[in-house]
From TrEMBL:
Pfam families, A to Z: Myb_DNA-binding (PF00249)
Protein name: Uncharacterized protein
Organism whose genome encodes this protein: Glycine max (Soybean)
Boundaries of every Myb-like domain copy: 9-61, 62-112
Keywords tagged on the record: DNA-binding, Nucleus, Repeat, Transcription, Transcription regulation
Transmembrane segments: none
Amino acid sequence: MGRAPCCEKVGLKKGRWTAEEDETLAKYIQTNGEGSWRSLPKNAGLLRCGKSCRLRWINYLRADLKRGNISAEEENTIVKLHASFGNRWSLIASHLPGRTDNEIKNYWNSHLSRKIYSFPGASAGIMDTPKVASIPPKLKGGRTSRWAMNKNKTYTQNVNVAIYQRPKQTFTQPNSDFTVLDADVADVNEPRIEELEAEVNKCDRSVDESNDEDILGLCQMEGISDILESWLPETTCVVWDLSEEIDNNDMVVRVSDACRDKMASSGEGYSCSSSMALDQHWDWESVIEFNNVVESEACNNWEQQEKPLTWPWEDDAWESQSKNLGETDTQMQNDMVDWFLS
DNA sequence: AAACATTCCAACCGCAAAGCA
DNA sequence: GTGCTTTGCGGTTGGAATGTT
């Protein structure tokens, strides 16, 4: 016995809405207000499912919808929010006035997602940057609770997300500043995830959702350097996302779907994309060229590849100067964290 | 100009949480 | 506390529009 249908589908119309239907729906809602979607079609005289009416109203008929193409600024916002929130389209849409979750989702899938470039595996480490963004816990399906939609709420949530900014840097050699990005997802270390969660869960933060900067901001984490040290070398599967914001010198690094799936299956429930928005002066041609090289070489011999990027504390020379991250130059460490959280 | 391929997006679907009796 | 209904979410799909051969 199958699931009961959400509404009586027999005799209901499907497919594109006609202008007449739009007018009928709009007039009814203007008169009676939103809500009671189940009974709305019958009351309004529409041969449509209530869900269909709701969707049509939300995505097309509402007066406060913004028409026209997504602007560069909006796109930038989407990229950044997606880096933090993942596919939480409604949440992203809530920060883009006049845009719907469906519109953003479609835009992402058709315009932005294909801009992702992969960095298939270099040898050693993994980089899944552990971070905290102040976002409500993701619910699989289901509507967002009213509590979660309230402003000035406090979340305690772990999300392996970060938006980084670094000082000016020219990316001429793929060996300088970041950890190897290993697309091989075989060794995702689940205990690390739990460990990270435990650390991250220490962080509570009040959030004003009206402020995107605040949403995107990272909470002050105690011992973040320790987390980075323990986490970064073991994270896997990163895909480089070179968005069209090249002109703005933004770059995003994100966890691959495979990694996300892995993490999800580990019981984490949800793993948002990691990202790096590197607001700096990259040599993009080199980046892309390097990406191509790495990709081709990866097909030949993954093990022999050198680290394209490493974190400073993974560098031997650096490490020799500082046996232990916790004992290193405090100023440098603080600077790194400041940059990391900026 | 026709056939085929690709892109884009409106709409559908199932799931799960909130709400309520 | 329980069960049913309503609502919201995100993934997926179908087909129109557009591009390419």
